[in-house]
Design a protein that fits this description.
Length: 116
């Protein structure tokens, strides 16, 4: 069984016990979050596609840690103007989550909702 969820403007294919790195969520390590924006659920041969979301479906996950991505350096240089060279670095803030279970059709445990 797997599901396709949307968080942080991106879509992820998730299954139980998967660990994935997503854009930062406002939750501490060890906290439980729920993703309500489930776009599709596949259970064996049964495929449920939402329009645009699957009603009553959710994905429970546990926050493993808050991290930062690799440093990305951007350089801008204009020709013949050495004094106009700039260099910037950026590290994206990320959250690592472990998928606990995929809830289909109305099963709703007590957990916080992650809206990203």
């Amino acid at each position: 069984m797997f599901a396709v969820i949307k968080t942080g403007g991106k879509q992820y294919r998730v299954a139980a016990e998967d660990v994935l790195t997503i854009e930062k969520l406002e939750a501490e390590a060890g906290a439980e979050v729920r993703f309500d924006e489930v776009l599709m659920i596949v259970d064996g041969e049964a495929v449920t596609v939402g329009a645009p979301r699957v009603d009553g479906a959710g994905v429970r996950a546990e926050v493993v840690e808050q991290t930062k991505g690799p440093k990305v350096i951007s350089t801008k240089k204009r020709r013949r103007k050495h004094s106009s060279m700039t260099r910037k670095g950026h590290r994206q803030k990320l959250t690592q989550v472990r998928i606990l279970e995929i809830l289909s059709g109305g099963a709703a445990p007590a957990a916080t909702t992650a809206e990203a």
